[in-house]
Design a protein that fits this description.
Helix 1 runs parallel beside helix 2. This protein has 13 helices and 23 strands. The chain binds cytidine-5'-triphosphate (CTP).
């Protein structure tokens, strides 16, 4: 039995000449036991017959949000799939995905999908080499999408070069390897709590004290844990970003005190708790019930400490629970991180320094050093937040294994 047996694959075809190869891809998936639904853009139909795809997938091919008398529910389609595969992904569709455009069914489903997304680009060499394409590719990669590398060879233009759609057997193999990795998951049956994003502390009904955190790092961690089988509760401060995985339950909060309430609920049920949120250390002592009007005088606002969520919950941890905190520093980074590890009774502290270019708030990349309570320290290079999340998750696995073997 292959990993594809019983899996739901949503194949999204865009307008590239390589679309003519898709019936063969569908046939391979179906033969391996997968259920395949196909959506396509209008221009994809110039390169491959919807009727052939209907027949090989044994499902009605969809290509418009509104079709004749029915409404194609893009949210339901996005949630139906175990894997979404955009193949071939033309330069135009790639640009739309990277920028969140939503002018056809394929884009709408992409934006609504909660499953892992693979992108198999196909285009002529010059388009492939253009900086705009490279940038778009990096953007979708930063969303956590998996890119299936293009091939080298003869192109539709007759030129020889890079940009060909990956070979059909390579596409099948990439999807299968991914499913394999995720089925043999280390976190099956485990529960993970993650706090992420900023907190907003209200001054009055229209103003707040906040910070620049976007929640990207915590969301990337949630995604990796979920992909490896964990059931994740993500307590997320105000941000427009959202994770995309059915095993992640997101609890949206605004202030530090709301975050504490959400994080401490059923805390003892969690195997691992990661505190990636940039929680405000202070909040206004009083929130004005009406908008504060300006005067000619200076305005003084008294602030009071918020509860340290990490410290409070780490104090309640059981021997089997693993607690991970973050430290964002601007000076004496390592010393402060080691101090935090002790003071907060965490198992691990993930340090990022604002002095490292490309690390910290808002970036798609991060550079971290992990300090473990068992004395081990690991330094990682500047890499995408998804790869940083993978490194942190691996370090947690190593730490938990080392603890078991003591
Ligand atoms: N944290 C928390 N609750 C708070 C404050 C921080 O859970 N009220 C957590 C963060 O999620 C992060 C870690 O504690 O995991 C950060 O430690 P902290 O000491 O708050 O860092 P700084 O605010 O940078 O501390 P300092 O001002 O002392 O440098």
């Amino acid at each position: 039995m292959t990993q594809l047996q019983g899996k739901k694959i949503l194949l999204a075809i865009s307008g590239s000449i390589a679309a003519y190869k898709m019936p063969e891809l569908v046939r391979r998936f179906v033969k391996a036991g997968a259920e395949v639904k196909v959506i396509m853009t209008a221009s994809a139909a110039d390169f491959v017959s919807p009727l052939v795809l209907n027949t090989v997938s044994k499902n009605q091919v969809l290509n418009a949000v509104h079709e004749a008398a029915s409404w194609n529910n893009h949210v339901a389609l996005g949630r139906w799939a175990d894997v979404m595969l955009v193949a071939p992904c033309s330069a135009n569709t790639l640009a739309k995905l990277a920028n969140g455009l939503c002018d056809n069914l394929l884009c709408a489903v992409y934006l609504s999908s909660t499953c892992p997304v693979f992108i198999a680009p196909a285009m002529d060499e010059d388009m492939w080499a253009h900086p705009a394409t490279k940038r778009n590719l990096e953007t979708v990669r930063s969303f956590g999408n998996k890119i299936i590398p293009v091939g080298y060879g003869e192109l539709a233009s007759g030129l020889i070069g890079e940009g060909r759609l990956a070979e059909i057997e390579n596409i099948v193999a990439e999807v299968e390897a991914f499913l394999q990795e995720n089925t043999s998951s280390v976190f099956n049956g485990q529960k993970v709590l993650i706090t992420a994003g900023p907190t907003y502390e209200k001054l009055d009904p229209v103003r707040f004290i906040g910070n620049h955190s976007t929640g990207k790092m915590g969301i990337a961690l949630a995604q990796i844990f979920a992909e490896q089988g964990a059931e994740v509760k993500l307590v997320l401060g105000p941000t427009s970003l959202r994770p995309k995985h059915p095993s992640i339950t997101t609890v949206s909060v605004e202030s530090a005190s709301e975050m504490l309430v959400a994080a401490e609920q059923d805390f003892s049920d969690f195997d691992i708790a990661i505190f990636a949120a940039a929680v405000a250390d202070y909040r206004p002592q009083k929130m004005a019930t009406q908008k504060i009007k300006k005067t000619d005088e200076a305005l003084e606002i008294k602030l009071q400490r918020t509860v340290d969520i990490l410290k409070t919950l780490a104090a309640r941890k059981s021997a089997d629970q693993t607690i991970v905190g973050f430290a964002l520093e601007t000076q004496n980074e390592e010393e402060n991180a080691r101090k935090k590890l002790q003071e907060k009774a965490a198992d691990m502290i993930v340090l990022n320094s604002l002095r490292d270019i490309g690390a910290g708030f808002g970036h798609d990349t991060n550079q971290v050093t992990i300090f473990r309570v068992d004395g081990k320290e690991e330094k990682f290079p500047l890499q995408s937040k998804t790869d940083t999340a993978r490194a942190i998750v691996q370090s947690i696995i190593d730490y938990r294994n080392a603890k078991k073997n003591v």
